[in-house]
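Review form for a predicted model. The reviewer records the input and the model, then writes brief findings.
Reviewer: anonymous (R2)
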Amino acid sequence: MHPGRLLIIDLEEGEIQQQTVAGDIIREFCGGRGLNMSLLYPYLARPGDPFAPDNPLVMSPGLLCGLPSLGSRTNISSRSPETGHLGDSNVGGELGCEMKAAGLDALMIMGRSNSPVYVFIQDDRVELRDAKHLWGKDPVVTQRAIRFELDDERTKIATIGIAGENRVRFAGVRTGLKNMAGRTGMGAVLGSKKVKAIAVRGTKDIKPFDPKGYLAFYKQIYDRTLNSKWVNALGRWGTPLLMKNANTNGFLSVRNNQSTTFGEKGEALDAEHLDNFSKGMVACTSCPAHCRHRYHIPEGTYAGTWGEGPEYASIGSMGSKLGNEDLESAIYASELCNRLGLDTISTGSYIAWAMELYQRGIIDDSVVGYPIPWGDREAIIRLLHDIARREGFGDILAEGRFAVQDIGPEAEPYLLQIKGLPIEMTDERAPKSFALGMATASRGACHMRSRPSLDVLGLPAPLLRELYGGNVSESYLDYQGKGRMVWWHERNNALCDSLGICRFLSVFSSPNAPQAERFARLIYLAFGERYDPDELWDVGERICTLERMILLGNGITKDEDTLPRRYFDEPIGDGPAKGEVINPARFEEMLQEYYNLHDWDLDGTPKDSTLRRLGLSEVASPDGKSPQT
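Model under review:
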């Protein structure tokens, strides 16, 4: 593989370096998430302070970004302020393609500036510009202001809001009108470094190795993708189409997972009601699926609210999780999070935690400053502002899981989290593969690391066996083969994140979607580099194993590959999944199947033979040698 271009910016020294990433590293890790992990391993393989100047932040577009592909995804990674260990967030939009057009494969930001700055990259030209006039502005205003200052509407920008400036531990990084690298607090890392934004303008040609062959093969994939039922549904409803399925099957988070269905009330949050506000569907660069709404609320309490989205995750987090069945307020709260620079998933989870504590009398008005009963829309909006501005009780919640230190130990059992990251907008007690995926996700509770959405489709066993290479139960309530499902999707998703491919267009909810064989063909036509499918699966395995080594280096062991006690101790009390609970012995069977397929020890530690097979023996050594050196 051709070598890559790495740009390193040292904010304290004001130095800008151009380095080369060896071609064999690009081959082994591709780009995006994989390249980020390879670059960050020396820094993340042992405990550290997320807000220390020596904690680097790395941003890498996927390998295929800039070419017609199945999405345009970029990963932003660092040590997480929210969890204290591996931080990583994946974002779509146009940013990754612009980085590639500037000839850039990765950007690393080190140190801390004395005053607010933004990074401006125009091809080979790199500048640090004053951003004091942008500090305090929301991401939409910031992007407009930078484009006006540069006199270039085509500049693509990633920026933080006031939540990132105030180092709210779950602040995200926004690009465009909607795209947010939300989870694990990457916006807080930029805020700690006094970096308001990263602006990129690229004018270089991006030419495939075989242009005619690439376009012809891409058109085959494009046509097949557009003809799939899943992508057609995405293009009509967006990801909110998943809301009805979760509600009617009983795996929706309702009132901090005290229930798993809203029943008939949940119909108010169904995707078809977005038609009342939608002005059409839009897509990320180079993506055949137009999966998000561009919307406007014309009247009522939230009149004038406009934006793109919201995703299923945001409706669930600002809606059902908080006992709120009002769609307009969920849309408004989601956009407010975007404007403040807050991750909707973590924010909704921490507010839900606070509302359950309020319900149980563990906190009251004297602690919060005002009532926060379930579904109170005014309280939700007020909390969002207070968290982002770190005012009153919001300053406590802005600490995420570390807020237990201020509230008290009696609050901890009601914070549903894994490895420091809170449970999301679903409840995994019914779909057992979802539960295992949550428990083992490398960045903490996360549906995007490995969720086997195919599990809830009731596909026939022979089809599942053919896809996964082993016996897998047809029922999502069953445990058989679910370790295999999670292992398969974990490697596939790591590969997609490294190629810049949207997982919704790979095998997420469609068994016929592109996977390693077609990815290998795209890579060859793009770069002239041959992979067989097994080599690409090894790329995914290599990334997952390196991330596992990062966790182990931070003291995170098998004991944390688990679920909140509620999942084991409290059967679902009502609805279609009534009585479902995680059986500890069966969960352990799934976990051991998952470890075994990764070729890790019984305690989840990668074997020496596994590290050698994946070429990680030196990379993942106690010395933490960086793989690009």
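Findings: The chain is about 40% helix and 15% strand.
Further findings: Confidence is low (pLDDT under 50) at residues 622-629.
Recommendation: see findings above.
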